[in-house]
Amino acid sequence: MKSMILSAYDRMPQSQEIAAPVPDEGEVLVRVVAASLNPLDVKLQSGLAHDYFPLNFPSAMGTDLSGIIEKTGSLTSRWRAGDKVIARLNPTRGGAFADFAIVPENQLVLIPETLALETAAGIPTAAGTAWQALVEYAGIVSGQTVLIHAGAGGVGSFAIQFARGLGARVIATASGDGIDIARKLGADFVIDYRHEDFADKIADIDFVLDTIGSETQQESYKVLRRGGKIASIVAPPDETMAKAYSVDAGFIFHSSNRARLTDAVKAIQSFDVEILVDSVLPFSQFDRAFERQASGRARGKIILTI
């Protein structure tokens, strides 16, 4: 089968022919239909994620996939050949950018019939991260106000819709055509961060989801109410700043979690969430897809069809 393999940090992954894997006890073999890229893929390739996810080379690439179960490694598995599933693979093991992938059977989630198999590949990391931040960390409830940075991005696009579904008032930052995208996704108020300082526009926010880091994270403390919360998916927040502004700050380190992914999929259905897709490209155009992801300009998810 073909698989995208990284031979060393800071090199472009290359498509290689490798032996098709065989599922062991507690594993299933999934025929990959589609896989989505994430900012983490760029960090893994460059070596920036080495402290959290050290790679052994050659290393298979890709974490998020949708596909059809081909074979199980156990006669007692709850999964059957033909089941349509999504999963998030361990980043250090990878393997989503391939014809077939081995997935622990306790990491699979069934795709509802209402979701297209291709676009469902965009769910695992982005939706799971948004759900972890809003529900598990912040405990958002109806009537609260949240600020979501980069509302037209992969995580931001899910976060806007989840927050709306939970009954929150949603403020988002965006730029260019992302402003209209964030509005259409349900943001009550969108700030053009290229031309406006969000810290001058809003105050008394209950929760900030930081998807950018650096100065944006620092400025975000100013808009929170006392006792509010900020969560970053980019870098651990500044605890000194958190104490100075009397707020709680947390780092969302997303990991594969079937229960969380199941909850996110249920919310996607019940809140009628749109999976925002930037582009769908064939496996043969991996370099183009990777370039787009690395540019930081993607509006939603970049999906590869295998």
Give descriptors for this structure.
306 residues, 28% helix, seven-stranded mixed beta sheet, globular, 10 helices, alpha/beta
3D structure, described in words:
The structure is a single chain. With 306 residues, the protein is α/β, with parallel strands linked by helices. It has ten helices and 16 strands. The chain has helices at 39-46, 117-120, 124-137, 154-165, 178-185, 198-201, 214-220, 239-244, 258-270, 286-295; strands at 2-6, 14-17, 27-36, 59-60, 64-72, 84-88, 100-104, 109-110, 145-148, 169-174, 189-192, 205-210, 224-232, 248-251, 277-282, 301-305. Strands 3, 5, 6, 7, 8, 15 and 16 form a seven-stranded mixed β-sheet that branches. Strands 11-10-9-12-13-14 form a six-stranded parallel β-sheet, sandwiched between helices. The chain has a three-stranded antiparallel β-sheet with strand order 2-1-4, with no helix packed on it. The longest helix has 14 residues, at 124-137. The protein is globular, with a radius of gyration of 19 Å. The model has no long low-confidence stretch (mean pLDDT 96).
